[in-house]
Amino acid sequence: MRRLMWLTLGIVIGAGTMGAVWANVANTPDDPDGAVDVRIVLERLDDGRVEAGLQQRDVDGAWGGTLKPAHRFLAPDVEANRPLHSSVVIVDTDSRYETIAQNYADYLFASGGEIADGFHDRFGGSDDPPKMLCIDDLNDQGIESLCDGFEAVYAGPVERVAVTSYEDFRLDLETRLLEDRELRGLFATSVPTANIVDETREATRRFIRWSYWIELIDPHLPAPSNLYCVISHGSDEDLFWGLSAETSVAAAGMLGINVRSEVYLTGAEQAEAVRRCAADGAVAIATTLSEPEVLKPAVQEAISAGIPVISFNSGAEDAADVGTALHISLDDYEAGRVAGNEFNERGIEGHALCVVHEPDNQGLHDRCDGLEEAFNGTVERWSMTDRESTVAELSDRLREGDVSAVLGLSSSIGTEVRSAIFRTRNGVQGATFGFSRTIAEYVADGRLMFAIFDHPEIQSYLAAVGALVTERLRIDPVAYFNSSQMLITPTVVNAEEMQVLIDSLTAWPEQP
Question: Where are the alpha helices (DSSP H) in 256-380?
Answer without folding.
Answer: 267-279, 292-304, 319-322, 332-345, 362-374
